[in-house]
């Protein structure tokens, strides 16, 4: 079982002792005591205080500045401290590969049987090739490491795949982690690829390396205790991706139905490269968001007819034969939310939508804009597409038989009463929450405003529309409804737990 290690980076011994207790209470398996973070550290006085009352097994690290740590002193003092930790019964000691031979000579090869030696190498610039990583692992093994630790940095999310390849072939226990937000996958999927341990921090202020998730996230969102070699990998590939609530929603729903999969936020730069790199059947399904929904059409081998007509995909499924199939669940999610938002008397003919005959202005001509424009046209609406890049508005408008405008034209566009506005741009999305596609003054032209942005739940656009007395529909509704479709694709037809989805969305958006 992959251990969950909580790094302790407090500046005082007292705070570090308190954090060790918090780590145990949070569900950690061991703590990493980072001695180099303690101000005024005095080994013979402080080490016994840190180790004797520690509620969890302890890993002691005294990281020098030349390896990314805080210690500025000489190696002899550092080595004496690590040897003292061994004598006091510590469970693990971490020493850097660059000085591992010197350290082994210093302790004359004498190491308590209980104590395991972790020999580590950190690359804060990039992730080497598989061949170079394998050679590095061999060098670490050769100096007498009980556990190999290699930490690199992801410039692109595909870099993580090289660490996975080396980990699964390593003949001794290995910790293989890739730092930065693009390397998060390495930390969550450590149990799938045989990692000896992974790190989870107590909170965002107590991090020891970039890209570390919290203990709570690892245990309660990603369910790391249940990840194993057979676990399917799902996720949202987008840029940015940090703001998305999809990992919370999908993971809790997957857990509720007992489906063996984990859903990750995947910060990508190139969709085709990502899909080509992570081509194993275990990487079985992905949500696509900005800016990849249109690119996804070219990446898929087959397309659902609706997705092909729209020209945008938000869901990719990898079949057992390796073929990629693209779907668009944004279409149903957005249009059904808008229809319910319009409300009012319904036609006796259930096939006639409340959108029929209405004028809807779609702001944005990307993936979400295409889905809404196509869906509205199918429901009998008259569609106007407004986009910052006018040529893209023209292209989409021509495809669905609508009218094109520049986004700036919305300030004076008022051909009739009772219009509907649907924002399908990223304006107003976290972290740029001040953005809006249209001024408050121009919002009074509309009867209803829908915003596909759901983080934050109440965007500037929706807030200002409500202040103008205009009916609003939050992007949370689209988020839930498109997620229902995605969940059923991901799980091969298991019914989505809609009530749970709504409960989660209400709590986290």
Could you walk me through the main structural features you see in this protein, from its secondary elements to its overall organization?
The chain has 509 residues and is α/β, with parallel strands linked by helices. Helices cover 36% and strands 20% of the residues. The chain contains 19 helices and 20 strands. It has helices at 13-26, 43-52, 75-87, 100-106, 130-142, 159-169, 184-188, 215-221, 246-257, 271-277, 295-299, 305-310, 330-342, 367-378, 390-400, 440-443, 460-467, 475-490, 498-508; strands at 3-8, 30-34, 58-61, 92-96, 116-122, 147-153, 174-179, 197-199, 232-238, 261-267, 283-288, 302-303, 315-318, 324-327, 359-363, 382-387, 403-406, 419-423, 446-451, 471-473. The strands form 3 sheets. The chain has an 8-stranded parallel beta sheet with strand order 7-6-5-4-3-2-1-8. The protein has a 6-stranded mixed beta sheet with strand order 10-9-11-13-14-12. Strand 1, helix 1 and strand 2 (30-34) form a beta-alpha-beta unit. Helix 18 (475-490) packs across helix 19 (498-508). The longest helix is centred in the last third of the chain and has 16 residues, at 475-490. The chain is elongated. The two termini are 33 Å apart. The mean pLDDT is 96.
């Amino acid at each position: 079982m992959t251990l969950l290690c909580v790094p302790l980076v407090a500046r005082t011994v007292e705070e570090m002792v308190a954090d060790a207790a918090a780590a145990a209470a949070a569900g950690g398996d061991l703590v990493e005591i980072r001695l180099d973070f303690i101000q005024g550290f005095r080994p013979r006085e402080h080490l016994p205080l840190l180790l004797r009352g520690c509620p969890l097994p302890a890993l002691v690290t005294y990281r020098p500045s030349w390896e990314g740590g805080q210690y500025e002193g000489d190696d002899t003092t550092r080595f004496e401290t690590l040897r003292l930790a061994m004598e006091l019964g510590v469970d693990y000691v971490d020493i850097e590969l660059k000085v591992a031979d010197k350290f082994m000579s210093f302790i004359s090869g004498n190491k308590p049987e209980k104590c395991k030696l972790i020999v580590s190498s950190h690359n804060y610039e990039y992730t080497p090739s598989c061949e170079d990583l394998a050679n590095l692992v061999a060098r670490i093994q050769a100096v007498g490491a009980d556990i190999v630790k290699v930490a690199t940095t992801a410039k692109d999310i595909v870099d993580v795949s090289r660490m996975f390849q080396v980990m699964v072939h390593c003949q001794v226990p290995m910790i293989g982690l890739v730092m930065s937000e693009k390397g998060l996958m390495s930390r969550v999927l450590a149990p799938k690829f045989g990692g000896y341990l992974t790190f989870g921090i107590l909170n965002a202020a107590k991090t020891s390396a970039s890209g570390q998730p919290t203990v709570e996230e690892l245990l309660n969102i990603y369910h790391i205790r249940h990840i194993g070699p057979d676990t399917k990998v799902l996720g949202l590939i987008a840029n940015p991706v940090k703001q998305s609530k999809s990992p919370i929603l999908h993971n809790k729903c997957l857990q509720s139905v007992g489906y063996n999969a984990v859903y990750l936020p995947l910060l990508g730069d190139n969709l085709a490269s990502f899909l080509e790199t992570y081509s194993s059947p275990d990487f079985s399904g992905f949500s696509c968001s900005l800016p990849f929904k249109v690119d996804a059409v070219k990446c898929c081998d087959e397309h659902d007819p609706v997705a092909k007509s729209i020209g945008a995909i938000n869901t990719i499924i990898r079949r057992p034969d390796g073929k990629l199939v693209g779907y668009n669940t944004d279409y149903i999610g957005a249009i059904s939310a808008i229809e319910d938002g319009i409300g009012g008397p319904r036609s006796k003919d259930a096939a006639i939508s409340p959108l029929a005959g209405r004028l809807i202005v779609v702001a944005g001509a990307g993936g979400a804009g295409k889905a809404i424009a196509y869906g509205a046209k199918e429901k009998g609406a008259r569609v106007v597409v407004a986009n910052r890049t006018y040529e893209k508005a023209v292209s989409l408008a021509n495809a669905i038989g609508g009218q094109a405008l520049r986004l700036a034209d919305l300030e004076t566009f008022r051909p009739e009463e009772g219009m509907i506005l649907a924002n399908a741009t990223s304006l107003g999305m976290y972290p740029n929450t001040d953005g809006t596609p249209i001024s408050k003054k121009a919002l009074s032209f509309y009867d209803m405003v829908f915003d596909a942005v759901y983080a934050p739940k109440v965007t500037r656009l929706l807030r200002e529309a409500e202040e103008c007395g205009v009916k609003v529909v939050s992007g949370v509704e689209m988020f839930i409804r498109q997620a229902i479709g995605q969940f059923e694709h991901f799980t091969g037809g298991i019914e989505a737990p809609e009530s749970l989805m709504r409960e989660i969305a209400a709590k986290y958006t």
